[in-house]
Amino acid sequence: LVDTLSGGERQRVWLAMLLAQGSRFLLLDEPLAALDIAHQIEVLALIRKLCDELDLGVVIVLHDINMASRYCDELMALHSGRLLAHGSPHELMRDSTLEAIYGLPMQVIRHPNGEHNIAVAQ
Q1: For position 34, what pLDDT does the model report?
Q2: Which of 4, 27, 39, 81 is disulfide-compatible with 8, CB 3.0–4.6 A?
Q3: CA 68, 120, 122: angle at the middle one, nearest 5?
Q4: DSSP state of 2
Q5: CA 34 → CA 8, 39, 40, distances in Å?
Q6: Contact 65/91 with Cβ under 8 angstroms?
Q7: What is the pTM of this model?
Q8: Residue 110, beta-bridge partner list
Q9: Where would I find the beta strands (DSSP E) of the chain?
Q10: Taking the domains of the chain in order of start, what are their residue ranges?
């Protein structure tokens, strides 16, 4: 049965199994891997909702700074096991900070919906 589930459905099943264990904390390593954008947003919105409603602590590994800044309260940027930056999305979503993290020119702009900033590589 699990083999017939889509990637997004499979991620929701994993979340349900974690919640069934009654843990107050979730450790999620790249839960968006191999998901299309619609399922990425669905999974992160669900995690955010569960975090808020159940007062869960969540540590999540993401490689998309835009998704991380949209759904997370705090961000940590690591490189080769070393902490490069730590702070709120507002603090880290700055051109100079992202340039130091990624090693290439970056520009942070306001998303057209006006709700959050997005990072764009130049």
Answers
A1: 86
A2: 39
A3: 145
A4: G
A5: 9, 10, 9
A6: no
A7: 0.84
A8: 117
A9: 25-29, 57-61, 75-79, 82-87, 106-110, 117-121
A10: 1-61, 65-122
